[in-house]
Amino acid sequence: MAKFDYAPAPESRDIVTIRPSYGLFIGGEFTHGTDGRAFKTISPATEEVLAEVTEAGPADVDRAVAAARAAYQRTWAGMPPKDRAKYLYRIARIVQERARELAVLESLDNGKPIRESRDVDIPLAAAHFFYHAGWADKLEYAGFGPAPGPLGVAGQVIPWNFPLLMLAWKIAPALACGNTVVLKPAETTPLTALTFAEICQQADLPPGVVNIVTGAGETGRALVTHPGVDKVAFTGSTEVGKEIARALAGTGKRLTLELGGKAANIVFEDAPIDQAVEGIVNGIFFNQGHVCCAGSRLLVQESVYDQVLASLRRRLRTLRLGDPLDKNTDVGAINSAAQLAKIRELSDAGEAEGARRWSPPCELPVKGFWFPPTVFTGVSQAHRIAREEIFGPVLSVLTFRTPAEAVEKANNTPYGLSAGVWTEKGSLILWMAARLRAGVVWANTFNKFDPSSPFGGYKESGYGREGGRHGLEAYLDV
Length: 478
Ligand code: NDP
What we know:
By secondary structure, this protein is an alpha/beta fold. It folds into two domains: 21-259 and 458-477, Aldehyde Dehydrogenase, Chain A, domain 1 (3-Layer(aba) Sandwich); 264-443, Aldehyde Dehydrogenase, Chain A, domain 2 (3-Layer(aba) Sandwich). The chain has helices at 58-76, 81-97, 99-110, 114-136, 163-176, 191-202, 217-224, 238-248, 273-285, 305-316, 337-352, 384-387, 403-410, 426-435, 468-472, and strands spanning 21-22, 24-26, 29-31, 38-42, 49-54, 149-150, 153-157, 180-184, 210-212, 231-235, 254-258, 264-267, 297-301, 356-358, 374-377, 394-400, 418-422, 440-443, 462-463, 476-477. Strand 10, helix 8 and strand 11 (254-258) form a beta-alpha-beta unit. Helix 2 (81-97) runs antiparallel to helix 4 (114-136), helix 3 crosses helix 4 and helix 4 (114-136) runs parallel beside helix 5 (163-176). The N and C termini lie far apart (61 Å). NADPH dihydro-nicotinamide-adenine-dinucleotide phosphate (NDP) is lined by residues 157-161, 184, 186-187, 216-217, 220-221, 224, 235-237, 240, 243-244, 259-260, 292, 339, 342, 389, 391.
């Protein structure tokens, strides 16, 4: 029992107006779906139905791609780059102005704590538009030749873990480089993308430059395989990424894939332990562990194992799980019943295979989808919880003795998206970074994102980079 408890500090929902139903955003307007199909989006924290959303069929995807093509040919590709930049700046400013509304909506639809949507997702989404607005009229200096041109229509499919932020990662560079887009948000989190459609209207963005089609996997499939799409950008599971790569092989379409991960967060004996523990917590419990680059495998040097685990357990007892709209909440709801089932299945497999499971005492709400912060010790590299992406608040702890062993274990995964290294020695950081097969290596920090910094994977974590100068290349004909 804590010495004192926090009073609830819920963020008000009043700032958000959710419509009872949403159409598709095609050619600058909300339109009905051709075959009248719809699905519901719910709050994963309460299972309350938030809105009904249109399910786009192949004919709708066709219309959206045609609208994007027309806008590409008539206005966007030929527009002076400095004018394209003005639209991107305008969008960035409106995202900032409507930040509180977007944060509340994101937390309602996704289940993530308001602290995270308010301080991470929405500010970073605005930052991506600001950053790419800056690039729009400087592409000839980006190092891709004297006159790099756009590719055409981009088909973009994004997941549910950072709905508006992933939208920004996809739309901002595409537009800055002169492409138009058709984007499909995830089935469980369409609401901030649909509000973004309103923002495009508010910014007077020419009709058809951004089109949003809602739906499930079938809609995504129709979009990425559409013959009118020149470039596909996908973030999601490795399984679907492979399917898309197979479908696009030989079509000449450009493809970038940002897929799963099983990152190692490596703590050496000379690391500042308290700081490292904060980094471990942030690495795996931020966003309920629904993070492709989550530090889901903790590698601790044997000599400090007891100390790190004791500190970690102490720290986890202070995490507050519950209402995503409460400003004191650290761990929110799991995004869907399906994802909760997957986390449960893998955690049960961890126990069945012999690892030891521990969670701090914590009461789970009765309604909604919830899973407590969980730590597995006694994990071997062969266990499923050390190999498979759980995409939930579950940490697998392994140990090592030497830097070489740490590298060997960290790289022993089909993935390669990120890694973390905690040590006081700069030389050891550089030595590790040169050997870790991961797109991003964080040193004495974790889960740090910036629009100027490229992000992407090795091996089954995908290919191509998003963000920074490197990310522009994916949207340019170079
Ligand atoms: P998916 O890969 O299925 O979903 C990602 C996006 O792709 C969603 O918009 C989805 O639509 C869409 N989609 C699904 N099938 C197709 C298809 N055949 N063609 C084109 N688009 C498609 O991930 P899930 O949501 O099913 O999550 C499953 C697992 O994937 C998680 O448990 C996690 O391990 C991993 N994952 C990894 C992410 C990452 O960032 N690396 C992000 C999300 C998940 P819809 O939402 O309607 O299904």
